[in-house]
Design brief:
With 222 residues, this protein is α/β, with parallel strands linked by helices. The protein has helices at 18-29, 36-46, 49-60, 66-77, 80-85, 96-104, 119-127, 149-154, 163-177, 197-221, and strands spanning 7-12, 32-35, 87-90, 111-116, 129-131, 138-140, 188-192. The chain has a domain at 7-116 and 167-189: Rossmann fold (3-Layer(aba) Sandwich). The protein contains ten helices and seven strands. Strand 5 (129-131) and strand 6 form a beta hairpin. It is globular and about 55 Å long. Bound molecules: BIS(adenosine)-5'-pentaphosphate. The site of BIS(adenosine)-5'-pentaphosphate (AP5) has 35 residues, from helix 1, helix 2, helix 3, strand 6 and helix 10.
Length: 222
C-alpha cells in the first residue's frame, strides 16, 4: 500500500551530529533536507540583505529572528519536491515560538528526534569540524577525516566553530530547547548521539522503518 512520505524533525545541541545523520538519511530515504543553518549560511555567503542581518546573530551564537527563519522554512516546505519526497527538518524549530508557527499551519512531523551528546564532547566536535565546499560533506579532523589529499586541501572551517562561540551556541540551545518538547512529547525519541555515526544511524533508521511499517499496517486495517 502506498503511504505518505516521511516527515522528520531532528534536534540536538551544536555538533550533536544532526547534519551528519541528515546526510546519511537523505542517501537512504531521499527526503528533502531542510537545514536552517545551511540556508542561512548560503544567504551570508551570497551577501544578501537577509544574510547580512543573520550574520550578526550567527556570529554571536544567538538565534536569528523568527520572521527571517520561519519565512525561509515555510516557503521551502511548500515546494513540490518536499510534498512528494517528504522532509527532514534540521535545526528548526528551535524555540517555542517557532514550534508554535508550525503548529498554527498544521505542520507536524511523524517523529521528533533529539540527539543527546555530553557538553565536553560537543566542543571538541565543533573545533575539529571541517566542511567540503564542493560536496557539502561534513568531516572531523580526528573522528572522520577526509578520504583524499585533494579534499583535505580544500576543506573550510565554519566561522562560528571557535571554542568561545560554541559555548555561546550551547547556552542558546539550553535556554530554548526544553520549551519545544511539550509540543512534540508524543513524537519524541531521544537517541544517544555519543556513539559512532553508523551506530547512531542504525537506531534512527530502525525508528523510521517502524513508522513506515505501522503506517502500512494502519492502511491495511482501514
Ligand atoms: P546550525 O548550522 O544549525 O548549527 P548548530 O545547531 O550549532 O549545529 P551544527 O551544524 O553545529 O552541528 P550538527 O548537529 O549538524 O553536527 P555535525 O553533523 O556537523 O545553526 C547555526 C546558526 O544559525 C545558529 O547558531 C543560529 O544563529 C542560526 N540558526 C539556525 N537555525 C535557526 C533557527 N531555527 N532559528 C534561529 N536561528 C537559527 O557534526 C559536528 C562534528 O562532529 C563534525 O565534525 C562531524 O564529523 C562530527 N561528528 C558527527 N557525528 C559524530 C559521531 N557520531 N561521532 C563522532 N563525531 C561525530
Amino acid at each position: 500500500a502506498a503511504t505518505e512520505p516521511l516527515k522528520v524533525m531532528i534536534s540536538g545541541a551544536p555538533a550533536s551530529g544532526k547534519g551528519t545523520q541528515c546526510q546519511m538519511l537523505v542517501e537512504k530515504y531521499g527526503l528533502v533536507h531542510i537545514s536552517t543553518g545551511d540556508l542561512l549560511r548560503a544567504e551570508v555567503s551570497s551577501g544578501t540583505e537577509i544574510g547580512k542581518k543573520a550574520k550578526e546573530y550567527m556570529d554571536t551564537g544567538m538565534l536569528v529572528p523568527d520572521e527571517i527563519v520561519t519565512d525561509m522554512v515555510v516557503s521551502r516546505l511548500s515546494q513540490k519536491d518536499v510534498r512528494e519526497k517528504g522532509w527532514l527538518l534540521d535545526g528548526y524549530p528551535r524555540s517555542s515560538s517557532q514550534a508554535g508557527s508550525l503548529e498554527r499551519m498544521k505542520i507536524r512531523p511523524d517523529i521528533f528526534i533529539v540527539l543527546e551528546v555530553p557538553d565536553e564532547i560537543l566542543i571538541d566536535r565543533c573545533v575539529g569540524r571541517r566542511m567540503d565546499p564542493v560536496s557539502g560533506k561534513i568531516y572531523h579532523l580526528k573522528n572522520f577525516p577526509p578520504e583524499t589529499e585533494e579534499i583535505s586541501a580544500r576543506l573550510i572551517t565554519r566561522t562560528d566553530d571557535t571554542q568561545e562561540k560554541v559555548r555561546s551556541r550551547l547556552e542558546t540551545y539550553k535556554r530554548n530547547s526544553d520549551a519545544i518538547l511539550p509540543t512534540y512529547f508524543d513524537l519524541l525519541q531521544k537517541v544517544d548521539g555519543n556513539r559512532p555515526r553508523e551506530i547512531v544511524f542504525q537506531e534512527i533508521d530502525a525508528l523510521l522503518q517502524k513508522i513506515r511499517t505501522d503506517a502500512v499496517k494502519f492502511k491495511t486495517l482501514e
